[in-house]
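wait is this the right file?? whatever heres the structure
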């Protein structure tokens, strides 16, 4: 009886740990599908985000979205922002 209680407690604790680890990240827009790497290449192909900020490339924008530093509703245009 004592062993089954310990097993149940361990299972509950393990489930809690698994839940904490497997939290889903933000749902990224489709244009980020090709940019899943954790490190972006040092390629200069500027994009202007709808926030008015120029980013070095689209990979950097998608990485910032994945890290929840930018909203996933953001849009972009190719090239530098006019304000830069």
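ok assuming it is, sequence goes like this
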């Amino acid at each position: 009886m004592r062993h089954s209680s310990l097993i149940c407690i361990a299972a509950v604790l393990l489930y809690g740990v698994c839940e904490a680890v497997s939290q889903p990240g933000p749902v990224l827009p489709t244009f980020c599908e090709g940019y899943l790497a954790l490190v972006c290449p040092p390629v200069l192909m500027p994009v202007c985000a709808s926030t008015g900020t120029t980013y070095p490339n689209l990979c950097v924008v998608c990485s910032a979205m994945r890290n929840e530093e930018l909203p996933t509703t953001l849009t972009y245009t190719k090239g530098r922002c006019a304000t830069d």
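The CA atoms of residues 15 and 51 lie 40 Å apart. so i think its the right one actually
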